[in-house]
Amino acid sequence: MARLLSDECISLARLIASGVSCSELSRDDGRNVENVLKDIAIELLLLDASHEEKSYVIADIRKTHRNAYRAWSPREEERLMALLIEGRSIGEISEDLARQPGGIISRINKIRKECNKK
Fold it and tell me: Is residue 99 part of a domain?
């Protein structure tokens, strides 16, 4: 499973949690510790913001697009392709599959990339 924080963030957090003061930290790559800590603080803020937003936004989005952010089944992909072949618009496909237009476009792009690999 992928980590939510970078390895650098985790290793420095462990050092600080074990009692090493910020003034005792040094970087082998020559970067200023204050800048490294600033980068970590930004990483944590971004992580917190993305987690908080998704925890309630997905529920709100699913009120109008019940399948938003759910995994695509092979059957749904077949339906998507059939609708494209019929000439349906992204909006119509979005309604039919109960997914957001952006999700439809992303899946089309993914399928296209997979076809180009063959």
Answer: yes
